[in-house]
């Protein structure tokens, strides 16, 4: 199979395109949200990773979404920047076209439901009306860009004959990529391979478009279904970093890419992903969203290359291939992490940040370096993980609220008291509060300085590295009117770490307050 694609040129059958939807589908997850600076940082990292298509957002959803898609389209180079739109949305396609107008390469991705269940109860439309909308929607998109993708929402539960008619209509109307998503994670690998094989065989023009797979993980089959789609003829994979997304999430980018690389005998395909940067992206996303991956997460979990069993340890020491099917270094893990100490200077610190993949402003650099020196004074050794934790804390755009200082007194014989200084909208605010322990007192001080009704739904504490002098990494979850966000913070002082995580979550909640989304947002 060879043909010319408007964004990628000549397409060969062994090429697989990676379509990342972390910034769109991933951000729809409860508790996940990113502001403009965080999205720009993630988009730049995704482009650097080698992602072919970055789905930047849903421009018609809000002014904030439009702005973020437009800015990503303006600054990102090397990747196609994609904007989502409903095929029949009144203003969706025009908004998407406007948002990607200045992209080096731009794509409009439009969708409509095609399953009997969705058409009857969600759309309340007859099949013929859906076919008409597919035609008009894709024609409208093609008038704005030559790279158009169309998705059959709930495609895996769509009747085969009707699905063929829908795909044919989309291709005739100008779609250059056809996506068949397993929207609710219902399908099995056998189902997905059969669907793509059928479409490739039955639909006129199928050999002149890229078929795409978008699989959700409700039954834990997202990655397996995606690999099955490749067998059926799909050559674009829609996925997210860490597998984030609606409900149980999407197929994880890092797992799919490493499955193709490790089992090239089964999946003889090529892609542009620089796998040594996978761990960096995973950690960046976890820090930005406040959601850590579980320790046993494939590829990027901290136990992914850990061996506790004596038999396993013995085998790995003799030959790593006995129990490791890929090397830790191939995905970004480092064998050594002991690096800097209290005598290290600014130049060495900057070099270390560059080696870890960070480029930050002079102002942020100064703040991070001062925190590093404070940490080095209190710890015997400083590890890469320590530096990553404190730098991630500094590079976040803290928006309206910033932590300045905290003084806490507590003990078994008296109530805890916290004196907190925050910068709120550029002005320093000092407040004192009591509580049932130092963390409770500190959180009460935050509420006093910045009154709000959000409920504390989760507070957890972990250690960045081992030892009693390890930095604490804390997670705070806030809930307000059905909106849920997670924040993270790190510091050698557990209470300070807790305050940093609360402020991170509160800033994210303020961003969420400004966002409004149209009905029928759920796609793919």
TrEMBL record:
One of its GO terms (molecular function) is 2-isopropylmalate synthase activity. Residues 402-524 are annotated as: Regulatory domain. It comes from Acetobacter aceti. Mn(2+) binds at residues 25, 214, 216, 250. Pathway: Amino-acid biosynthesis; L-leucine biosynthesis; L-leucine from 3-methyl-2-oxobutanoate: step 1/4. HAMAP family: LeuA_type1. It comes from the Bacteria. It catalyses: 3-methyl-2-oxobutanoate + acetyl-CoA + H2O = (2S)-2-isopropylmalate + CoA + H(+). GO terms for cellular component: cytosol. Its cofactor is Mn(2+). Residues 16-279 form the Pyruvate carboxyltransferase domain. GO terms for biological process: L-leucine biosynthetic process. Homodimer. Catalyzes the condensation of the acetyl group of acetyl-CoA with 3-methyl-2-oxobutanoate (2-ketoisovalerate) to form 3-carboxy-3-hydroxy-4-methylpentanoate (2-isopropylmalate). This is 2-isopropylmalate synthase. Keywords: Amino-acid biosynthesis, Branched-chain amino acid biosynthesis, Cytoplasm, Leucine biosynthesis, Manganese, Metal-binding, Transferase. Belongs to the alpha-IPM synthase/homocitrate synthase family. LeuA type 1 subfamily. Its EC number is 2.3.3.13. InterPro entries: 2-IPM_HCS-like (IPR050073), 2-isopropylmalate_synth_dimer (IPR013709), AIPM/Hcit_synth_CS (IPR002034), Aldolase_TIM (IPR013785), LeuA/HCS_post-cat (IPR054691), LeuA_allosteric_dom_sf (IPR036230), LeuA_bact_synth (IPR005671), PYR_CT (IPR000891).
